[in-house]
Specification:
Number of helices: 7
Structural class: mainly alpha
Largest sheet: 2 strands, antiparallel
Distance between the termini: 36 Å
Strand content: 5-15%
Length: about 140
């Protein structure tokens, strides 16, 4: 699953502090997606990975904690430079099913009508719709 957003208008408004504000916006967005990911066992939430210029194509071997994912996001965001692409990927086979529903089975533990009870409207889509909020939060620090 991936998504992209054009940051050019934001960069124009931000001026000399554009990079820092893009980092803040991306970090807030990515952490919100990760935190909203359903996590019965933690695997889906811990499989999110941030990379620069190319998406990751594998999943972490070990289940990572939310704090480990957040640390990776913070580290990679600091490395990002204008002109590069930040990728936030989750390569688990069932991540699209978590986002869009379509579970082929029902179980009282976590699925109703093919959708996760914890995120029936998705978690990536909802946070992308909140993107302007993340920009506004980052730009509050502009002088």
């Amino acid at each position: 699953m991936s998504f992209s957003l054009d940051m050019s208008a934001f960069a124009k408004k931000a001026g000399t502090v554009a990079e820092e504000n893009v980092r803040k916006t991306a970090t807030s967005l990515f952490i919100a997606v990760m935190e909203d990911t359903p996590r019965d066992l933690g695997r889906a939430q811990g499989a999110w990975q941030m990379s620069i210029d190319a998406p990751t194509v594998t999943s972490p071997i070990n289940i990572r904690s939310a704090s480990e994912v957040k640390a990776e996001v913070a580290t990679n965001a600091l490395k990002w430079k204008a002109g590069q692409t930040l990728w936030f990927c989750n390569n688990l086979a069932y991540i699209n099913t978590l986002e869009f529903g379509l579970y082929p089975w029902e179980n009282s533990a976590g699925v109703v009508n093919g959708f996760s009870k914890k995120a029936p409207e998705g978690f990536v889509r909802l946070n992308v719709m909140r993107f302007q909020t993340f920009i506004n939060q980052a730009t509050r620090t502009l002088s």
